[in-house]
Amino acid sequence: MPRRLAMALSITTVLAAGTAFAQDDTQASQAPSKAKSATLETVTVTAEKRTEDLQKVPISMTVVTAEKLESFGQAGDGVLQLASRAPSVYAETSYGREFPRFYIRGLGNSDFDLNASQPVSMVYDDIVQENPILKGFPLFDLEQVEVLRGPQGTLFGRNSPAGVIKFESRKPTQETEGYARVSYGSYGTANAEAAIGGKLASNWSGRVSALAQHRDGWIDNDYTGKKDDLGGYNDRAVRLQALYKATDAFDALVNVHARWLDGSAMVNRANSITLGGDQFVPGFDRDSVSQDGRNKQHLFTWGSNVHLNWHFGDLNFASITGLERATTYSLGDVDGGYDASETPAKATFTNRTTPFYSETADALPKDRQITQEFRLSNDSSERLKWQVGTYYFDEDIAITNFSYDTLNNHVLNGWVNQSQRTKAYALFGSADYNFTDTFDVRAGARWSHDKRDFKADRTLGFTGPVGPLTSDPTDARWSGDLTGTWQLSNNSNVYARIANGFRAPSVQGRINFANSISTAKPETITSYEFGYKSTSDDNKIRFNADVYKYNMHNQQLTAVGGASNVTQLINAKKTEGYGAEFDLEAYLTPNFYMTAGGSYNHTELKDRDLSIAPCGGGCTVLDPLNASGNALINGNTLPNAPKWIGTWTARYGIPYGESGEFFVYTDWNYRSEVNFFLYDSEEFKSKPFLEGGVRIGYNWDFGKREVALYGRNITNKKVITGGIDFNNRTAFVNDPRIIGVEFRAEL
Predict the structure, then answer these.
(1) How confident is the model over 185-226, as pLDDT tens digits?
(2) Residue 539 exposure: Cα atoms within 13 Å on the Cβ side
(3) CA angle 419, 512, 100 (to 5 degrees)
(4) Rounded to whole angstroms, what are the CA distances from 479 to 117, 156, 388, 446, 531?
(5) Calpha distance 57→44 (Å, rounded)
(6) What is the mean pLDDT of the chain?
(7) Residue 678 in 3-state DSSP?
(8) Helices and strands, counts by H and E, the chain
(9) Ramachandran class of 276: left when φ > 0, alpha when ψ lies in -120 to 50, beta otherwise
(10) Most buried residue among 232, 284, 329, 362 by CB atoms closer than 10 A?
């Protein structure tokens, strides 16, 4: 059992207004009378920037409802909870609760610098979150999450060759509605979430929502002798929205949001991986470390966006303006141990000594992003549906990398300044034409221009000042898609899709331990997809599946650390991928609802001459080495790209009384082995991982009140989730089992 099991109260209230997504687990059993007629409702999505039925959109995609997110996130998991919750989706981080790195169909970016670009675009309320720090905004008071797999080069454009993850907040209405939710569990894990909204004036409505998450420190530092020193956090976020709507001809939505985070950065664990294997060393203890370096993290982000919509007959014009800002400071003991010359409080842990120390911090003193999109479209009821638009992106960021002398009272001994200004603009258009009642063709194209001005200099370091070093890559190109859809019956269709996309040139200037920056050429992808979508005649089963293949050229990859202790960008000549995915949801009985999803993803690098430095901390390299001692990685799979992903949820309810119900809810997600780096070794990989959660409770008043026991990682599985390879076999580890109680209520 965990060291502290706390019982508490959780209150949530969920919107009583009609929802646009499928009838979910909770709704299906709010009352016995509803459960007897439980059917799947229509899922509406905005994957192609107009409201459509999920089953009519010819894209491989998964919709994750708000209720599922609440169940997954009871233990404060944050945005990383989406890992393996949808087919072909994986996520990891080396930064704690900020800087998530997402992968779709094996495509992602393991770069950990604060200007790193990623091929998975994350869009929050129609605003792209470009900087990786912005991507970690907590999930609360959401309508749903849409996961779009494959290139989205027409409507989302730059930096979306792998796919898009779209987050939709619940919007204000004239109805008074709201919820509150509080939970408490093991390790002092507490979550409080609430929202209230309704009519403000005759033409105005508003909504305020907030989230607070907390966990006590739970990891002992045996070097200092301090108990419960690391692993804790305080994470808070708020969102305010105001909607103006006087007539059907015009509406305006204003959104302001912010996040504050204080706590531990990633807790690295020195020499935790066995030499010659991918398992923990004997005696490994997840609840303790021995570190001589410091660890802390602070983050503040805020932003605002304005959505303006005009309706002229059968024409619609939209303006979407966004501003995002962020600052952060993250300090960690990178080597994860202590120098062999030092004496810790507990001298028994000699396996945690390291050849040399590494205590570094990354700061983002400035991140300012401005976006503007204009879009003109016609009415969705027309046989020919079209839309055209323009897009502008302007980002200005400053990054500071620090290094500290751990053995000399942590004095500063390395200082690097980076600055980057990115400007991009695009013109795009798409059309959807119903040739017959059973045959439909969609096509789109986008022209994009991208320019980046980068500068880095080292004012203090081990080998003296360097720079300024500069890079100013520019790129302009076309991207687009073509899709045909054939309706087989009233409830089923098949589609074939060809799409391409690209990622703009990237620059890496992390030069604390290097004397040069690296620039990656733009990557391009062409994807082929064939899919099937169906719903049973009685609307109790929904099944979607697809197969795909893609070819990527000049894929941008990050060679991390290794024996050279230098992180740099490289390009692979070609990368091939193929696989299959499916989503299923069904009412097996009026009181038994389940969902399932799965994927197989094959990735392979095709570049006979591409080589990188292997580990510097001792590992068993499986790749051939060239004359320089570098690992040749041709034929390797991509890092953090599990071949198999599976997810399953089930809910069974037992009606009780006039308006009550006892229920059991469980969710399980699986991913197969993943490799952490571009080279292949016996040590730096993670074993297959199956994680489960459960909720057992009672709801009453037709589902408006609920109390439940919950458990996350209920088998208390311990798994390596990442590693550092430059001077020892350092590991990241997943969170332990969390057990708690929650109570929720609805207005």
Answers:
(1) 999 999 999 999 999 999 999 999 999 999 999 999 999 999
(2) 10
(3) 65
(4) 18, 10, 14, 5, 21
(5) 10
(6) 91
(7) coil
(8) 2, 45
(9) left
(10) 362
- Report d(CA 388, CA 375) in Å as an integer: 6
The closest of 528, 422, 522 to 478, measured between CA atoms, is: 522
Please, which residues bridge with residue 280 across strands? 273
Angle, CA of 725, 728 and 731, to the nearest 5°: 70
Read off the tokens for 556.
């941008």
**CA separation for the pair 504, 159 (Å, rounded):** 6
Sorted by where each starts, the structural domains of the chain and their CATH numbers stand as 44-746 (2.40.170.20)
Distance, first Cα to last Cα, the chain: 36
**Which pLDDT value is given to residue 130?**
94
CA distances from 682 to 42, 275, 727 (A): 47, 8, 16
Query: Rounded to whole angstroms, how far apart are CA atoms 636 and 641?
Result: 11
**Residue 131 host element (H or E):** none
Neighbours of 324 (CB within 10 A): 25
567 and 508 Cβ atoms separated by less than 8 Å: yes
Residue 17 near residue 117 (C-beta atoms within 8 A):
no
- Confidence tier at 136 by pLDDT (50, 70, 90): very high
Select from 202, 225, 266, 104 the least CA-distant residue to 732. 266
Q: Give CA 424 to chain center in angstroms.
A: 23
Per DSSP, the three-state class of 55 is helix
Structure tokens at 110: 């393991």
Neighbours of 393 (CB within 10 A): 22
pLDDT in tens, 425-434: 999 999 999 9
Cα 415–Cα 420–Cα 422 angle in degrees, nearest 5: 170
CA-CA distance, 287 to 136, in Å (whole number)? Answer: 25
pLDDT value for 427: 98
This prediction has a pTM of 0.93
The H or E element containing residue 33 is: helix 32-35
Query: Would you say how long the chain is, in residues?
Result: 747
Token pair 């602070």: residue: 298
Distance separating alpha carbons of residues 54 and 51, to the nearest angstrom? 9
Q: For residue 54, give the 3-state DSSP assignment.
A: helix
User: How far is the CA of 73 from the CAs of 80, 145, 147, 182, 679, in angstroms?
Assistant: 9, 14, 18, 12, 34
Q: Please give the single-letter amino acid code of residue 581.
A: E
341 pLDDT tier (thresholds 50, 70, 90): confident
Q: What tokens were used for 237?
A: 């976020």
The radius of gyration of the chain's CA atoms, rounded to the nearest angstrom, is: 25
pLDDT(651) > 90: yes
In contact, 155 and 163? CB cutoff 8 Å: no
Residue 18 predicted with pLDDT over 60: no
Strand partners, 746: 179
Model confidence over 625-645: pLDDT tens digits? 999 999 999 999 999 999 999
For 280, residues 6+ apart whose C-beta sits below 8 A from its C-beta are 272, 273, 274, 718, 720, 731
Cα angle value 297/298/304 (rounded, 5°): 140
Please name every residue paired with 711 in a beta bridge, in sequence order, or none if there are none: 694, 739
Residues near 202 by Cβ (< 8 Å), separated by ≥ 6? none
* pLDDT above 60 (res 23): no
Residue 362 tokens, joined:
């990354």
